[in-house]
Amino acid sequence: MDLREIYSYNSGVGAKLPRISFEAVVPENGDASELFEKLRALKKYNPVLISLSVGNNNQMQGLLIEFLQMVQDLEFNVLPNISTSNLSKELVEHYITRIENLGIENILVTEGLPSVDFKDTCALVDFIHQKSTLSIGIRENIENISALGNLKNKINAGASVIFTENFSDNKKFFSYVDLIRKIGVNVPVIPTTEANQVKCCELLETGFYGLHFNNIDENLDFINEIVKGVSYGKFK
User: Fold this and answer.
1) pLDDT of 15 over the 80 cut
2) Fold for domain 18-229?
3) For 9, phi and psi rounded to 5 degrees?
4) Rounded to whole angstroms, how far apart are CA atoms 59 and 175?
5) Are the beta carbons of 194 and 223 closer than 8 angstroms?
6) What is the pLDDT of residues 30-72, one digit of tens each?
7) CA distances from 81 to 54, 112, 139 (A)
8) What is the largest CA-CA distance in the chain?
């Protein structure tokens, strides 16, 4: 299921329920055995996505396909991460072809150092959109207001969902969403947060029907409870 369907109001993944997702990072040494034990423990939360990233060196990037297949074997919908760092158009086209061949429907474009072929994330979003059928998410820092013009460019280039960087204050997140709506950015915004029950309840009760957790090491047993107990507003 692609991002647009997952975060649509009447999605088949539990319509009118919050969509829970998690972020997993493959260790620098490439040993993912402990990581995959943690991922198995997350199945009870029925996540709609597992976002998977690795380090930026070429050897680690080469291993990503193997790790993506392992996450799929656990019956998760996997969201591979990619950035502009050290990438050429040839490498990106090869990579997105391989992940589409795995049946993966989504990709998350994150900030990275400019490369010869991709001066910024907008250029990478546009290239992926032109060369694939992948649904594209982007990672945004809610405190970087100066980047709002570039945000609109990324949406126009083909990005369909925004995942935020982690933030400490829900008020800043609400203000960010109000601001981007005023400039015409109407795609779903998924808050990335730590395991804080009060913070998560406030986000859901205010109407944000997705939560993306950036730390799978925390005790997350409160998730099922807040999902059951939240009274939903208008989804955003």
Assistant:
1) no
2) TIM Barrel (3.20.20)
3) -60, -45
4) 40
5) no
6) 788 889 999 999 998 889 999 998 765 444 456 678 889 999 9
7) 8, 11, 10
8) 50
Model confidence over 161-202: pLDDT tens digits? Answer: 999 999 989 999 999 999 999 999 999 999 999 888 888 888
State the chain's mean pLDDT as an integer.
Answer: 86
Coil, helix or strand at residue 173: helix
Domain parsing of the chain, residue ranges: 18-229
| Burial letters 162-173, b for 16+ CB under 10 A, else e | bbbeebeebeeb
Residue 127 to residues 91, 121, 143, 151, 192, Cα–Cα distance (Å) = 12, 10, 27, 16, 26
Beta bridge partners of residue 170, listed in sequence order: none
Backbone angles phi, psi at 52, to 5 degrees: -125, 125
- CA nearest to 234, candidates 184, 194, 181, 162: 181
The encoded tokens of residue 199 equal: 């913070």
Note whether 30 and 63 are within 8 A (CB).
Answer: yes
90: buried, middle or exposed (CB in 10 Å: 19+, 13-18, 0-12)?
A: exposed
Per-residue DSSP letters for 24-73? EE--TT---HHHHHHHHHGGGG--SEEEEE--SSHHHHHHHHHHHHHHHH
| Sign of the four-CA dihedral 202, 204, 205, 207 | positive
- CA 232 – CA 145 distance, rounded (Å): 28
Neighbours of 140 (CB within 10 A): 25
